[in-house]
Write a structure and sequence with these properties.
Elements lengths: L2 H14 L9 E5 L5 H11 L6 H5 L7 E8 L4 E10 L2 E9 L8 H15 L4 E7 L3 H9 L3 E10 L4 E9 L10
Parallel strand pairs: 4-5
Antiparallel strand pairs: 1-2, 2-3, 3-4, 5-7, 6-7
Length: about 180
Amino acid sequence: MGTGARTTAVHSVIAMRPQPEPRDAVRIRPARAEDIARVVALETEAFSDAWTRASFENLLGDPRALFAVVCDDDDLVHGYVVAWYVVDEGEIANLAVASTSRRRGIGGSLLDAALDEARTRDVTSVYLEVRDSNEVARALYASRGFVQVMRRRRYYRTPTEDALVLKLDLHQPRTHAPR
C-alpha cells in the first residue's frame, strides 16, 4: 500500500474514533511538519529522556508508523501518539499530553486511535514500556487490557528506573466501554 493510501486509512481510522466530549473541542489527526515544534515542546515537558526533533521528523510519512496529534479548534496540539507496526506486532512508542490538558480523556483517545490502527493492520499484539512509578499511565493501559509481561531493570535514565513491559492481545475482547 502506498503512502497516500496509508494516510487515507489513518484518516479513516482516526475519523471513526470517538472524540472527547464537545466541551473539549479537540480532534485527532495525523501529525504534520508544522506540528513538530509543539510536539517537541510537549515531549520535553513530559519526558526527562526526550526524543529529538529529528526523531519526530523522520516519522512523517513513514508507512510503518502512526504519528497522530490531538489539537483544538485553533489547531493547537495538546498531545500526540507514536506507534509502530511490523508484521503482526505493534508498539506504542510514545504518548504524551500537555500538562494543562490532562484528565480530559485525551490520552485515552490517542491510545484508542493507535489500537484501532493496529486492528486495521491485522496486528495481534501491542507492546509498550512504562515507568514503574507512572501510576496514571499504568491505570490507563490497564483500562484497555494491557498486562505486564516483563520488567526491564534500570531501563530509564534521569532518574534511573525500571520499565514495565506491557502487552495487549488484540484477539481478546475490549475491556473498556466505548465513549
